[in-house]
Amino acid sequence: MANYSWMQRLMIVPPIVLGAIVLFIAPSMKAEPPKTEQAGATKVVRVIKMKPLAIQPSVIGYGYTQPAQEWQAQAEVEGRVIWVSDNFKNGAFVAKGEPLLRLDDSAYQLAITKLNAELDVSKLKYQTLGVSYSIAAQDYKLQQEEYQRSERLAKTGHLSQTEKDKAKRDLLSKQQLLQNLKNEQAITLAEQQVLNAELDIARRDLSHTEVRAPYDIRITATNIDVEEYVNKGQALLQSDAMDSVEVLAQYSIGKMRPLRRASQSQNFDNSLHNDLEATVTLSAGDKQIHWQGIVDRSGGIIDAQTQSQTLIVRIPEPYRQAQPGKKPPLIRDTFVKVTLKSSQLDNQMIVPINAIHSGNIYVVKDNQLAIQPVEVDFTQGQIAVLKSGVHEGDMVVVSQLQPAVEGMKLKPQPDKAMVQWISQQAKGDE
User: Fold this and answer.
1) How far from 19 is each of 15, 28, 401, CA to CA, in Å?
2) CATH of the domain at 254
3) Model confidence pTM above 0.70
4) Which DSSP state fits 305?
5) Is the distance from CB of 310 to CB of 298 less than 8 angstroms?
6) How many domains does the chain divide into?
7) Which of 1, 42, 46, 268 is the most buried (most CB within 10 A)?
8) Axis crossing angle, helix 106-156 with helix 161-207, rounded to the nearest 10
């Protein structure tokens, strides 16, 4: 057994004392746990009080403009171009009836002169045949009387059978001559009808040597020039009518349902969409330019890829509505937005789309959160029209709750700006 001195034995005392001190003060050095927020804390939320509103269903489509009518002039006769108008150039405006170009008409003038001469000869021939027919008719009548006398004389024995037969042959000869003249007259009249028809054709061809605008147009392309020879059927120019333009705008089939629901039209014909209000909008930089349009008809087919239908909106007098520096004319291939509106639907419950959460809305009841399922009738822009799930007077939460626990305490604050915004959206104001 080892022997320790008294000094070595005293060295064990300080560690024991230090350990006792640590054990004594350790509880007082223990950190407090963080205080958790009380589950019953009240959260401030923005709400709107539900009341029935009137909404004007609308839908937006896009498309390109095109003239309601195009005119591609083709040569109806052949000939050399001897004159073109100063307006015979791309982009020029041409009034209805204004001459655009002329072809050399000398060949057609000569054809008319020739036909007139042939017609005069035919008329003279007909007159000559008429005189000959009159003489032949008198000769035939005399021969008939002569034959009748020969028959009487033959019966009394004063005329031989040979002489009687000769009288009959003379009568038949006169009758044949009369019939030939009559036939020649009929043939001559038929020839005159043919000549008159040819004359009408020649005059029509002559009129086609001058090309005039059939209505007010704007030339988009010219294909010939002076001294060029054109063949029948050759394209001379292309142009657009100026009285109206059309927009072939495409709309999703589902988006059209609210408009048809509000429509009063029951006819399934060209007037099906006439009760819709159409506004055509052109974005020019930061400026929006508007035209009032008319829904003319449906395109008649559904796009296989996008499942959208085409409605054709017509804008009358696009050039007369133009204002230099303010409102340009609508010309071909302008990309525009077309907004369609129908008559309004009354007594509709409307909320912002972002107030709907996976088919539910949040409602404040007795200052607590209630989660109610809703059925959406249709959406329009950033608002939704509800078919069921809310009632007048319900306080719908429009704030974002994270997390949303049913029964949590809420302090509702009316959002007047949101109510005003919903009202504007329901009216279709942009």
Assistant:
1) 6, 15, 54
2) 2.40.30.170
3) no
4) T
5) yes
6) 4
7) 46
8) 170
